[in-house]
Amino acid sequence: MLARVTGGIALAVAVLLGLVLMLLVRESWPVLVGGGWTRFFVGDGWFPSSGQFNLLAMLWATLAASLGALLIAVPLGVLSAVFSRFYSPGWLIMPLRRVMVLLAGIPSVVYGLWGLTVLVPLIAGWEPPGASLLSAILILALMILPTIALTSEAALAAVATSNLQGAAALGLSRKGIVLGVALPAARVGILSGALLATMRTLGETMAVLMVAGNVVQTPASLFDPVRVLTANIALEMPYATGDHRAALFASGVLLMLIVTVLAWLAGCVGARSNA
Amino acid sequence: MLKNPYRLSDLLMTITVWFSAALVVGAFFWLLSDLALHGIAKLNWSCLVSAPENAGRDGGIGPILVSTLLILGVALLMTIPLGLGTAVYLSEYSSGALARSIRMSLDVLAGVPSIVFGLFGNALFCIWLGLGFSILSGGLTLACMMLPIFIRSTEAGLTAVATEWRHGAAALGLTQAAALWHVLLPAAAPAITAGLMLSIGRALAETAALIFTSGYVDRMPDSLSDSGRALSVHIYDLSMNVTGGDQSAYGAALVLIVLLVVINNVAASLADRFLSQRITTS
Q1: ipTM of the shown complex
Q2: Cα B274 from chain centroid?
């Protein structure tokens, strides 16, 4: 009886999940069939009203913002994890972790609000217009830092104490232990945390939408305003119809494909660590 | 004595690590103090219950809090039964094709950007099912986002229950349903609670998936088929579309963060108490 009930529920959930994938493809079908998928990567640019759906500029902006955020957040996150495992005075460890957990739970729209009211004016004073690729990178970096710090700390904590003691017994300095033993042993955990963070930066909508300026262009400098794929969906969905709407759904499918590949990679990394 | 050749680089490493940690802590201190200072300046009791005025610049967030909780309630009503059923099925019964395909789609969906769920919810609930921009559409969309997280952590919790417990329950003559209710679910309670907390956190923080599903209307909702503005959407709207709405946005942001912390703690302690009582008295 129980098997039948839970099996029925599971089937319903499977149908629901299948619907997500099916509907996204179905809604983007007109534009995929009507002009072929190549129209998303060739053409003059993103001019939906005249049927030009070149997503490349926004794709580059998405990738640039994610990459920039990772370049800042991964080293800082890993170093702050090293700090709390190996350098911090004992009384500081728990409060630090509490704050990180709190920060990891803060909604992205709040990060966006802070970026918009504090960071953007600061950058504008330095190099107008302020709302730019740089502010998007900084806000995204801030958003994923807690996640990276927490996953790196967990990975470092999982390194066997005997390895660390052995290294200390061999006369390695603290730096030697961290760089030579702890970090190499924890690299798989750190890497999968970074991949998770990458997925979050690629899929983030609100925080980037609020600080990046939203001009469709291939970023040429850090101070250029840019529009990322997710922000484009949020901005144009309210009035999009016909092929335009279908193109937005297609960009959603594209985002999903990128994230799925990353999730698969993270799975491979995880499987290797278990082997 | 040999001179330690590592001393300078050791010092550099120590400085780098301390500097990075200080930078991270400093940045977040800046962020949190801004949130607290600007937020508290705007908050008082009447603002929690009164309606927004002047596009949200003045007045309170009463109707918005109600909409937020209604959306969350709809989402939880869908997520908890569906999620528990699926997780039990995945962990107890199956290694077959259905379970494999569910696991695969859960893994894919767990990483899907929330804006894509917004697209899906708009297409399915608002247009296909004709629910329009409503609290119901928003809640159901959020439920789809929460299901992968909730099912996976519940399944992990159930799988971690030792096989001996199942054998023991069977040896005592418990039916499978009784064993599930009295042994397995209570034993997996911490994982279920954690999954629930994560899901609620994700739902309350969500903005992108709600813009095209539950909409912007900031009146007090009359029913679940009314459009209702969630707190996160309110923050977004105030800061982007309303000139001079920043202070109110900070107030709403502080309320949202406090709400997240409180709901997490309450959910954790309630579930702990409820489930631990059952396992000790049964």
Answers
A1: 0.87
A2: 21
